[in-house]
Write a structure and sequence with these properties.
The complex is a heterodimer. By secondary structure, chain A is α/β, with parallel strands linked by helices. Chain A has twelve helices and nine strands. Chain A starts with 38 loop residues before the first helix and ends in a 6-residue tail after the last helix. The chains are: A alpha/beta, B alpha/beta. At the A-B interface, helix 3, helix 4, helix 6, helix 7 and strand 4 of A face strand 12, helix 7, helix 12 and strand 15 of B.
Amino acid sequence: MADAKVIPFDDDRSRTGGSARPARRRSAAGGVRGQGTGPAAVSALPGQQDASKPQEEPERAGRPLGRDERAGWDRRIAGGLAFLRRRVTGEYDVDEFGYDEELTDQVLMSMLRPVYEKYFRVEVKGIENIPSEGGALIVSNHSGTLPLDGLMLQVAVHDNHPAGRHLRLLAADLVFVLPVVNELARKAGHTLACAEDAERLLRRGEVVGVMPEGFKGIGKPFGERYKLQRFGRGGFVSTALRAGVPIIPCSIVGAEEIYPMIGNSKTLARLLGFPYFPITPTFPWLGPLGAVPLPTKWTIQFGEPISTAGYPVEAAEDPMLMFNLTDQVREQIQHTLYKLLVQRRSVFF
Amino acid sequence: MLVTGAARQLGGRFVRRIQRDPGVDRVIAVDAVAPGPELGDAEFVTADIRQPAIARVLAEHSVDTVVHLDVSAKAVGTGSRTMVKETNVIGTMQLLGACQKAPSVRRLVVKSSTNVYGSAPRDPAVFTETTPPKSLPSGGFAKDVVEVEGYVRGFARRRPDVAVCVLRFANILGPRADSPLADYLSLPVLPTVFGYDPRLQFVHEDDVVDVLGVASGEPGRGTLNSGTFNIAGDGVLLLSQCSRRLGRPTVPLLLPAVTWVGQALRTFAMTDFSPEQIRLLTHGRVVSTVQMRETLGFHPRFSTAETFAEFARSQGPGLLPPEVVGRAVDRLAAMPFAGAGGDVPGTTGAGDTEPTPSAR
């Protein structure tokens, strides 16, 4: 996916979220930033800021190195070697969930960023709705056959939030059964979607992301795109209430079309132990090539936070209130989805 | 005070330590075999806790505190698994039966293990004392522990006047550790399960002895030492971190292959590679120690990482000591490259950025 097709697009819409791109956390490269990047790169992505360009670009364009740039490189190299040294000697820390912040920042995010920036060209709106400190529960719609929307949401929060907050996603138990996937998920800070883990994270003041539609949302047929499914049993609301954190509704547009699921082979799914087995116009007919997602244009909008601070503790035990709050969150996400869909010019641009 | 399992390394250390406690008059150490280490002034009684004779020992010495440490995953010397299970389960039953008949008993401390929680992908990331296990362990030491705790709960119900303290220890490690996990980590090359990097927690032997002292004495001010407590050092280590810090290379194997290798290793008596240990090395296990700190009032001296460092020091360097690997990286940094102007970061297979350095 590294050799993503960069589709030039002429973006004339207003970008509420994109205009205020914060400084990136790669502070080691501070000397290079702001000196202007290769002109070719800028014209390919007019909507993006210079700071978001990978630092290799000026080198590839063959520009002579300035003194500052050389110093920046030296620092980068020293940082990279120190990082490598820490990794090979095992001198790094993970938290009780197995979250490896260093690996996530330096490696996993760097691997996802090209997909995020170049392939899906994610546009983020309303990032200011995520508080700079303290816990918050981001509730989002779920779609796209493979949970790429969760990963993109993680990059969106990580790269755009001024306080550099890290999103901790709650994942289905299937993720933790599969080898490799479970290892990477734990290291990226994901954990099992259960009330205990969610509450523990929220009480520690983390931003937690949850997609309450679960497999019903991600594995729904193409014809039902952008129709929100049932939001589980609303457990996320009572967890947020108990932890006293705001709920931030989040709508993701674009993920529905990456794998248009036109069929579902129940037999194969049962055989493999998966909740569904997608059949798209390309998969499984073209083999691994058919698993390449369509390069749709994404928009992620964070909505106004819904405060839970006003409720008493015992409110978490009130099923009626839970249903009402769940519906309120669901309605808000659905409404925003329709609004974004009306604004969207085309699926791919 | 009566201590079972005194012939073991841990039991012996606890017996020696508790004699120095001014509140303890007499220590009676019990085990089926003669103790290896010196027990000091403690009175050693050779008694098999699987036999009813243990009741006589309790009555004869009018014991007030029973510390039951004879719950282990590993046999002393060359005992078979059946023997271990007998000692764990039948031994506990007999001992508790004897305690129930002994009116002098006021306090019971049982060594348990965090194995009771099992290890499954569907479990929450952190276990608290009240978390019910999603899948009960089907056999092996974990099942023993579940049964032992069941009997202890029954005893606590029948003798409400006895203060019962169950200590669930995470993996015990240290310079003299004697556990299946320590054996595993002593292998020159560590077989791991491909695609899984389990989270592990360790507790130092010294902390184990200390917390047993806390649990077997009178509770301190503002604390309570009856109930069930998880005992573990702070922090978490991944198995990959452990292998790198030990300097022992890992061999990732697919899950069925790990079972075969485990069987082969068991046949050659190199380590007890039981199914539950494979589950631990697949999914890992982390417990919450809030109760230990706030209710029991015990603060371990060693964190998980420090415990592991102590263990690694006692093991000697592995095949790839971290110092050597670290020096190799430093040499890479010092290597002068010609034409430093065009350096572009390259990536290694692991995805780690490894830029070629430029001349200063």
